[in-house]
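Curious: why these numbers?
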Amino acid sequence: RKNTKRVPSFRKLLRTSKIKLDNKLKNKQYKQQSAAKKYRKEQKKLREAVRDAISRKPFPLEECKKKVAEKQEEEEEDALPLDMMDEDDLKLMEDLAQKASFLTRDLSSSEPVHVKKRKHESVIEKYEKVPRRMQTEPEKELIHLLPIKDKGGIIPQTREKPVLNVAQDEEEDTEEMEEAEDFNEEPLPVLTPEEMAAQRRQTLQERKMHIAALASAILSEPDNNIKKLKELRAMLMEQDPNVAVIVRKLVMVSLMEIFKDIAPSYKIRPLTEAEKATKVKKETQKLREFEEGLVSQYKFYLENLEQTIKDWKQRKLKKSNVISLKAYKGLAEIAVKCLCELLVALPHFNFHNNIIVLIVPLMNDASKMISELCFEAVKKLFKQDKLGYASLGVVKVISGLVRGRNYDVRPEVLKVFLHLRIKEVELQKDSEDIAPKKKFMTYKEKRKNLSRMQRKWKKAEEKLERELLEAEASESKEKKLKLAKTLNIVFVTYFRILKKAQKSPLLPAVLEGLAKFAHLINVEFFDDLLIVLHSLIASGGLHYRESLHCILSAFHILSGQGDVLNIDPMKFYTHLYKTLFSLHAGRTNDDLGIVLQCLDVMFAKRRKQVSQQRALAFLKRLSTLALHVLPNSSVGVLATNRVLMQTFPKMDLLLDNESQGSGVYLAELDEPEHCNAQNTALWELHLLQRHYHPTVQKFAAHLIAGAPTEGSGALSLDLSQRPATELFEAYSMRGMTFNPPVASVTPRRKVPSHLSVSFFDQDI
């Protein structure tokens, strides 16, 4: 039987310990350092060998002989002849010649023997005096081994160390360096721009085909081809500078679509040690390996996207310089798009909270495109989140971001709260609580109406229904808890800004949010909140739109659970009445939508708490306002007047010329209770009957007739059943369109000049 080595599974490869990875990294770094050190040593040896060879190079002998001969001739001319010397001197010279030291001296020199440096020493003699090196065997180095002990004592053990032929290695290295230099000196072929473009297109097409092949293989069989995800993800590090940017973008988008398709509809949790130790079927083991591989590759992919965004934010470039700094912005935008898509498409899958932590700070980014992408993604997530888990995570991160930046964030970050499904979930929760509970048949009813077999089936069916009801009850309870936590964080953020940052640019967004969610605030905070809202209005530091949000928030509070409180919001009525004429057909025309919401809450929902004098004053001032606003605002105002005339009795006083009671109408007075509105008439309706907009004409004629619900003066169902805010939006002229459209006028046909008859040509 063969002894085959078992190939490690993909799951085991994923479980590589951190220590092993660190050791591999250290070994790699050590090898690189040792290779660099060895290369430096070889270069140093090469330089020393070249320097030594240059210093040992002998001078040419022919030139030296010529110089020596000339020198000897000069010396012979200066020297004395031998016949002029004494015999004693000659004898001395002969004795000195027998000594060895004399032979080593230059005979033409007059310097003593002990002088080492000679200025006039000949070149040949210098060359001859250089000592010759005998070729000796290199000294053998000994390696000391462990000693041996016998009866005689300890015997040391040694071994000769093998000597490498250094000279031969140096020659081989120099030859290799010369070959490399010769190879580098060969010039690269110069390509024309057309050839370079064609080569780039070919390379890009090859990369595209490779990406498509890998993606189709993964999508066709995700279980078997999960390893190809790693190969595709490796293309995010494309190094060819000609196609690197496009290839990386394509790989990012391809991986995003692949993960959206193959990710399961549940969160994958890590296996426990007991689960790993137990034996399972092959199919289960294969599924586990697929899930582990998918989660790990998804994590690495998200890390790559995060690193791309960080490199662009920190203006950092990689050492390879494959991609320019300008191209990094395009890569970062694609990375943000991929993260936004995964945030919306996979809210149930792993690492969703990590994506939220990445996306939410980018909502405050300086780049308009990136911030808008993140806004839209979070809005979509809020709208489609039915369980509330993802919404709770986003709200937590936004609250921490606002607090961490010391309230220095863009107002749009808080305006995202307006898209939460809190109001819809609350209504659904109330309807579930109010709905009658299901009743089951009693034992007597079963005995009377059902047979034995039918009773048996009915019992099993009721048991199943009870279990389902229990599951739904636990789910709704969990949903309520999530909703309560989300609401708590939202209101804590709002109240913190109202308390600590009243002059912050976030205040309009806070007031708008309070106006929307005020009916969900706890009753305990009502008094304090109303005091804060009134102080903000009285301070005079708010814009008109912000003051309208304050009024709307206050009346939302009082129209909901605040009905039980004994609070008279007269100061809010007075402020709105006083500032109505701030609206006009210019920039403030859009603010009239908020005014219509305020009027609906102030009069329609609080009809029992409003006096007749207050209603008459608002009816008169709104009729005057309808004269100098755009047509859509006029339609909304007149629709509100219609509601006032139908809700409150005796509003037809203003349709009569005769005054009721004493006093004169004071139009400039800002107190609706004391302006004597009952002594005036709605003469504005006669002007509005001649308005250029047909819908305004219809409403004016309807109000002059007393706003009847039936008869000839009644409005059509299309106008009578729609609220004022909806009519305001329906007849808006933002898109430069007129509703209803203006009928085109056919131009008159011109008579040709040769057919026209002059006055003087006529026979009178």
The first strand starts at residue 142 and ends at 150. The longest helix spans residues 452-500. The beta strands are 142-150, 153-160.
